[in-house]
Design goal:
Length: about 525
């Protein structure tokens, strides 16, 4: 006979009781699902035949790109775990500059592998430790594939950059942008002793109009927005200029607090105007005394940096004026022309002036004007002018050129190249599968799952190119088992081919960084078993 339940308290069955392990599984599966859905968004953008994304912001501005880091940065990601994938994409962009889509796709594939392993009842900590074992072995295999590169071999560097640009909107202009990127990076470093590149020494200047073919590398400075002041008829071309970089205003002084001066008669007004003329005339005389014939004036937010009267006096003395220099440009200008910024007129002396061969204003094909300073003494800075028919093209060209610079920087950091086209991923996958057979216990299963997950890169490349992914990946796997380490997917011909002979190569740092960051992120997601909200 069944015992009666207490009145008012319904009896709880086993299914109704709170099960802590079930909650942990729900949180973990929710995290994995959110991260996988984000990886699926950018997956279609991978490779030379990847699709572009059109992004519209709340203001209605439109952006077209297939750069993984840019897409994820613009997306409004709400789920906290999915945000971790956005962060690893940013980290990849900072570390290597390329492979920002690959790192997210690899992380998504590893999370799918985790799902299968968790369903088999393997503990998350065991999976996490197994992934670390697999990563260490994968990086060792990558070192075996890597071939050393000499930074003096510009052709090899250019080929790496062309491979990186092949997936961009501006891929057809890679023959112009690639040499610019290689020459710019090699100019600002000494390859023999330096193992990093400060990209702040390469100034990328954008100007709408013309085509990307009109872009150029300039050994000096280019200003597109800082017009030479023409109002008073000052010079627009000077040979052997002596350039003063000033951070004070050439206009009548104002008080710190807003105030009014009440003038009762014309004599007082004349005195004010005379005093203003005398003050500005004395500034111009001191500039002339220092020997400067070109003045660059930093933009001021408190008052006008320069007024019509000061422009008139400077034009009479034959001094060229370039105004509205941004604060963040001052350091680069100073480093390029050798000028020391001057904050007060009393500190302006001949030794603080910068020098160059010439400075002139030029008209471009679309009648817009730029200021060009050439023949500078500094050999540690360089400027690049990026042109394009509209803002969308200029934006994408600028982003692509930044990626190109980062590829060359990756080769300076880690001087090794590997074949592209999914070859390293298949090689690591195949070698890891062999290695997993030598392991015992659950590690063998986890390492094998890691190896299978890496096949997502060649699978996706084939899928995006409209090929049969299962046939292509199987063919690649067979070739690598036969010892063809450099076999990858030739997307243009739609076949498996030797990537080195096809000139599809990439820096080893890109794949190394992508594997490390993706594994680190997945291990962190695996360890999360609860989501706690705070007030």
């Amino acid at each position: 006979m069944q015992p009666k339940a207490a009145k008012g308290k319904p009896r709880q069955t086993k299914e109704q009781t709170f099960n802590k392990s079930e909650k942990q599984e729900d949180v973990r599966s929710g995290n994995i699902a959110a991260s996988k859905s984000l990886a699926d968004v950018v997956r279609t953008s991978l490779g030379p035949r990847g699709m572009d994304k059109m992004i519209q912001d709340p203001k209605g501005e439109v952006l077209i790109t297939n750069d993984g880091a840019t897409i994820l940065k613009q997306m409004e990601v709400v789920h906290p775990t999915a945000k971790m994938l956005v962060e690893i994409s940013k980290a990849q962009d900072i570390e290597a500059g390329d492979g920002t889509t690959s790192v997210v796709v690899i992380a998504g594939a590893l999370l799918s592998a985790c799902e299968v392993l968790l369903e088999k009842g393997i503990h998350p900590t065991t999976i996490s430790e197994g992934f670390q074992v697999a990563l260490d072995k994968a990086l060792t295999i990558l070192d075996d594939i890597k071939k050393p590169v000499n930074l003096e071999d510009k052709e090899a560097l250019r080929t790496c950059v062309v491979t990186s640009l092949s997936s961009k909107v501006v891929s057809q202009n890679s023959d112009i942008l690639a040499p610019f990127a290689v020459d710019a990076v090699l100019k600002v470093i000494d390859p023999a002793v330096e193992y990093n590149v400060d990209l702040n020494n390469i100034k990328v200047v954008r100007k709408k109009g013309g085509t990307i073919d009109d872009s150029e590398l300039v050994d000096g400075l280019i200003f597109t927005n800082n017009k030479i002041a023409h109002k008073a008829g000052g010079p627009t071309k000077i040979e052997k200029p002596k350039i003063a970089l000033i951070q004070f205003c050439l206009s009548s002084p104002k008080t710190d607090v807003e105030n009014n001066i009440v003038v009762h008669d014309y004599n007082a007004m004349d005195r004010i105007l005379k005093e203003e003329r005398r003050y500005i005339a004395s500034l111009v005389k001191q500039i002339e005394k220092s020997g400067a014939n070109v003045v660059m004036i930093q933009k001021s937010i408190l008052r006008d940096a320069v007024n019509d009267l000061s422009l008139h006096f400077l034009a009479k003395k034959g001094i060229m004026v370039i105004k509205d220099i941004e604060r963040d440009e001052v350091e680069f200008i100073s480093k390029t022309i050798g000028a020391i910024p001057v904050a007060h007129i009393d500190h302006l002396t001949p030794e603080k002036l910068g020098q160059a061969e010439s400075i002139k204003e030029e008209s471009l094909s679309d009648d817009s004007k730029i200021v060009r300073i050439t023949g500078v003494k500094s050999n540690k800075t360089v400027s690049v002018l990026i042109r394009g028919s509209n803002n969308l093209v200029v934006d994408e060209a600028e982003r692509s050129f930044h990626d190109a610079l980062c590829v060359v920087r990756s080769l300076v950091k880690n001087r090794g190249i590997i074949p592209g086209g999914g070859a390293p991923e298949i090689e690591i996958s195949q070698k890891l599968a062999e290695y997993s057979r030598t392991l015992s216990g659950l590690d063998s299963l986890v390492v094998r799952a890691f190896a299978d997950a890496l096949e997502v890169i060649p699978y996706t490349l084939a899928e995006n190119a409209g090929l049969n992914p299962i046939y292509v990946v199987t063919e690649l796997r067979n070739r690598h088992i036969k010892g063809e380490k450099e076999s990858g997917i030739n997307v243009k011909k739609g076949i498996c081919d030797n990537m080195i002979t096809e000139n599809v190569i990439q820096p080893a740092l890109v794949t190394q960084s992508a594997l490390s960051l993706a594994t680190e992120c997945v291990r962190m997601i695996l360890k999360i078993d609860d989501l706690v909200l705070t007030r």
